[in-house]
Please model this.
Amino acid sequence: MNTKNTKKRGLWAIITPVNSYIRWAMVISALSGILSVIGFVFLAYVIGLVMGGTINLFGFELGFKEALILLASITILSFLTKFYSFVISHLGAFKLEQILRTDITTHLAQIPLGHIITLGTGAIKKVLLDDVKNLHAFVADTTPMLAKAIVAPLASMVALFVIDYRLGLVAIAILLVGAVLMKFVMKDSVSHRENYEQSQSEINKAVIEFVQAMPVVRTFDDGTTSFKRYNDALAKYRTNLKAWFGSTSTPAKIAMTVLSPMPTLLAVTIMGLFFLMNGTLEFAPFIAALLVSTGMADALMPLMWMSNFVKKSSAAAIRIQEIMDIPVLYNSNTHKKIQNTNILFKNVDFKYNEKDNYALKNINFEVKANTVTALVGPSGAGKSTVAKLIPRFWDVTSGSIKIGGIDIKDIDSQTLMDTVSFVFQDTFLFNDTLSNNIKMANENATDKDMIEACKAAQIHDFILSLPNGYETMAGDRGTNLSGGQKQRITIARAILRNTPIVVLDEATAFADPENEEEIIKALANLMKNKTVIVIAHRLSTIKDVDQIIVFDNAEVQEKGKHQELLTIQNGIYAKLWSNYEKAQNWDIHHIGGIK
Ligand SMILES: Nc1ncnc2c1ncn2[C@@H]1O[C@H](COP(=O)(O)OP(=O)(O)OP(=O)(O)O)[C@@H](O)[C@H]1O
Ligand SMILES: [Mg+2]
Model:
């Protein structure tokens, strides 16, 4: 079963895939509760037999020995059923965890990538770790206990009333008082905040890597292989966290266990002794009443903290369902073949969210195959948004984007991935060797291909200068390399992919001029014989491109070649260009002045 198709909301809806486990665990746990009550009552009568005599049970006369064997059997059976119910619930919990993880990651791999970026590390982390873990714990521990917590007190109450209705009334009165008291005790059960937060932040690191990697992963494969690696890391952290959780909840449990059966026991003892002395109660029923009432209060306890836990788990379930509700990218089954790599934007409107303003309004332009088009404009104009629509990070709100005359929604995702590569504004490297980081772009690439690509990307010499060459680890999130070096590695990846269309969202700033020069060379190599859309921040690099499209306020304002655009009176491009030149000159004079 798939949680994706679950229309119902909330905790009980999300655990339906493992309903059969839960039902069995609950039934067996309830049975164990009833058996333990029967065991307590029977124990009292067996104690009575120490003085001699027999018990008449449904017409059978039982001596001490037979009664003892029967008692032992009931006790063992009660334990076995309890154990078995937990085995079943844990099996269900593991299965649920697996189903949820698979469903969520599969779903994340199918929704527009833009959503993942906007959801952010925080939300995805919460869902994949905390929320799934929470539901695991709910199914594993809470469901069997819930059944027992409801059935055992009821069975105890029935037993107590059968033994002596007066003691039954006493127990009910005390329980009501006890329940009110417990509400206060529950208030400060959360004391290990600090530790919890620290372990949280450790997990954060892994997850941030996971989420940041997603754009890279999604550009290169459908997610299955690369996701596994992150899933494994997450699972490891989860296990650690679970162990930690287990150890801290014990003192809380002990405190509560000590606290609650006491009053009931005390009241039943005092009243029982009173009835015993005035001759209205026998010894064996008295003992039975004591045992049963203790068990009753004990069994009621979990209900208190469970309500808290159920609330938390419900919130977790809802967060998971919210992610599962994000519609997947529309995928047509037409599998149309792309004839050429012309790119056409036709009347494209786009909003990130329904309530937002348009990020793009009525965008029309064409990029002819094997030409270079530059997108320029002020920050926030919509350039990156245009770029992200081409590999379908988001789908257009209206209008259409065509490659080779075919709507990109009608191109199957693998073909689209094989057609378009994307170099991001932010680069991301896995915590792996440089060689693996580069080769992930193309699983068929040989070492020779990789080295060729790195040479073209102007990064080969640098890599060779490292102590371990291509086997050097990229370090945590690639922090061992400068921004420019990282970017050249990303360019090497793109060269290795060798797709006919390249979308470049250039970084706004480069680390240093030396890097900049090399990056320009690297990009030139990447762009050779390709259809290119480049978002350029340094206008000098795009003077010679085939077409410049100027964006402002979500719209295309100007279109043409460098020289044409400069002739527009009060044109945006002309203004950008003159500012750019001034900045360059300022730089030269400034440096000259220092000399
Ligand atoms: N994920 C997002 N969710 C909502 N709004 C967004 C998102 N990304 C961008 N926007 C908005 O869309 C508009 C266009 O942003 P975009 O990133 O395309 O600008 P840009 O031209 O690339 O700017 P820059 O030169 O700074 O990179 C902006 O108003 C921005 O705030
Ligand atoms: Mg941008």
Observations:
- The pocket of adenosine-5'-triphosphate (ligand 1) is lined by residues 114, 118, 352, 356, 359, 377, 379-385 (CB under 6 Å).
- The chain has two domains: 3-325, 343-428+499-594.
- The first strand starts at residue 55 and ends at 57.
- Residues 3-325 form a domain with the ABC transporter transmembrane region fold fold (CATH 1.20.1560.10).
